[in-house]
Amino acid sequence: SSGSRGEALKEKRTQILSRGLPKQKPIEGVKQVVVLASGKGGVGKSTTAVNIALALAANDSTKEVGLLDADIYGPSIPKMMNLKGNPELTPKKLMRPLKNYGIACMSMGFLIEETAPVVWRGLMVMSAVEKLLRQVDWGQLDYLVIDMPPGTGDVQLSVSQNIPIAGAVIISTPQDVALLDARKGAEMFRKVHVPVLGLVQNMSVFQCPKCKHETHIFGADGVRDLAKTLGLDILGDIPLHVNIRETCDSGQPVVVSQPQSDAAKAYLKIAMEIVRRLPVPPA
C-alpha cells in the first residue's frame, strides 16, 4: 500500500541523514554534562561558567564537579581559576585535569604558552576539541560544566553531536544585539536535540556603590522577553558588579572569595535552578 511505502521511504531517509552524524558517546566517569553558551562574545559567559561550577559544588558538597574550557582561541579558565602548568599524563596517556577550589579543570590554556595566539584552521580546532573531550581522565564527576566559545559554529556542533548533553544554559546581557545572538544559540541547541534548561540574564543592573541608585546600563528585562518568546525559563539575574570582575581577574571567583555577597547568592540560586531542571542522572 502507499501508506507502508511512504513509511519505508521515511525510514530510509532517516537512515541516510543519520549516517553523517557521529555516534554520541558519553565521557567516561562523567554522569551529566551541562554546557554554558552565548551567541555573542563579551557577555560574561566564562565568568558565569566558573562561578556556576563552583556554586554546584558549594550547594552540595557530595557532588564532584569538573570544568572544561572549550574556547580554543581565547581560553580564560586558567586565569579565572588561578591555575598554571601542564597536565600530567596517566599510564594510559590521558591528561589529568588541574584542580583548584575542589574543581577539576581542563583548558587549551594549559597546553600552550599564555601569550601565544592560536593560529589554527577549523580541522586543527576540531582535533583539539576532540582531545579535550576524549583524552582527559576526569575520574568520577557528577557534573561537567563546559564553557563553550561564543557563536554557533563548528565547536558547538561538534560537542553537541559527540557527547550526550544533559542541558544547555544560554547567557546573555539584556542588550538587543546580544539577545539576537542568544536566540540563535538557543535555536541551535534545539536543532541538535539538546534540552535548553533556561536563560541567565547577566549584567542586569548596576548599583552605584555610593548612592545605591540602580541603572539598567544594557536595558531592562530583555532576556525575560526573549525567554517568553522562546517558551524558556529565566534561571536568574546577575548584577553588573565590579567585585565579580575583580575576583575572577585575580583568580578568586566571587562564589569562593565572597560567599555571603549578593553576587555569590545569585550564582548559587542559578546552580540550584539548573540542578532542578536536569534529568535524573544515571545510577
UniProtKB/TrEMBL annotation:
The lineage of its organism: Eukaryota, Metazoa, Chordata, Craniata, Vertebrata. This is Iron-sulfur cluster transfer protein NUBPL. HAMAP family: Mrp_NBP35 (MF_02040). Iron-sulfur cluster transfer protein involved in the assembly of the mitochondrial membrane respiratory chain NADH dehydrogenase (Complex I). May deliver one or more Fe-S clusters to complex I subunits. It is found in: Mitochondrion. One of its GO terms (biological process) is mitochondrial respiratory chain complex I assembly. It comes from Cochlearius cochlearius (Boat-billed heron). One of its GO terms (molecular function) is 4 iron, 4 sulfur cluster binding. InterPro entries: Mrp-like_CS, Mrp/NBP35_ATP-bd, NUBPL-like, P-loop_NTPase, YlxH/NBP35. Keywords: 4Fe-4S, ATP-binding, Iron, Iron-sulfur, Metal-binding, Mitochondrion, Nucleotide-binding, Transit peptide. Belongs to the Mrp/NBP35 ATP-binding proteins family. Pfam families: ParA. Gene3D superfamilies: P-loop containing nucleotide triphosphate hydrolases. It comes from the Eukaryota. Its main location: mitochondrion. Its cofactor is [4Fe-4S] cluster. The keyword Nucleotide-binding applies. GO terms for cellular component: mitochondrial matrix.
